[in-house]
Amino acid sequence: MGANTEKKPSRIQLKNRKRIMDAALDVFSQHGYRGATLDQIAEAAGMSKPNLIYYFDGKEAIHVALLNALMEEWLDPLIEMKAEGDPMTEILGYVRRKMEMSHRYPRESRLFAGEIIQGAPRMKPHLERRLKPLFDEKCALIESWMKAGRIARMDPRHLILTIWAVTQHYADFDAQLRVLLPEGDGADAHVETMFRRLLTPEPTKR
């Protein structure tokens, strides 16, 4: 066995780490990073604070672990946008995937939003290394589709930012939406129709 071989965590250790991260996600999404405490996370996880610290050095370590996992999850829908696909199909597919994530992961979305609002003190390196190159790549792809006349012309950067703003609203403002739209239906169809109309090129004038 090599000197650098690390012992793999046991099934119980993995289970407890997940338990802590699930509890922390609730606490951070409710109270923000600054308002959250290790005591709150330990209580939500149903374990003692010393036991929690056995798995994570502190609040920041838990927060960073959550954000790292979330970044990978958040990038996947954009990665799936393929150059060889039909532009309208690819972009609307991305919109649908983002809406689905907003429905499924409202806590994660609020966690990410809270980090960005604070100036991304823990996520900035990931934004620079992982998100920015992918963002630039997909903007260039969308620009090529626009130049070819396959979708309407606009700034591809702001198109992606608008998709983020619209879809993540349904996660970040979930409490408000439960009041305004108690039946909770129609959002997906509305958002897809809006972007389809935005992306459809105007008929060529003869």
From TrEMBL:
InterPro entries (alphabetical): Homeodomain-like_sf, HTH-type_TetR-like_transc_reg, HTH_TetR, Tet_transcr_reg_TetR-rel_C_sf, Tscrpt_reg_YcdC_C
GO molecular-function terms, A-Z: DNA-binding transcription factor activity; transcription cis-regulatory region binding
Entries under Gene3D superfamilies matching the protein: Homeodomain-like, Tetracycline Repressor, domain 2
Every HTH tetR-type domain range: 14-74
One Pfam family here: TetR_C_3
This protein's record includes keyword DNA-binding: yes
GO annotation terms (biological process): negative regulation of DNA-templated transcription
DNA-binding region(s), residue ranges: 37-56
Keywords attached to this entry: DNA-binding
Name recorded for this polypeptide: Transcriptional regulator RutR of pyrimidine catabolism (TetR family)
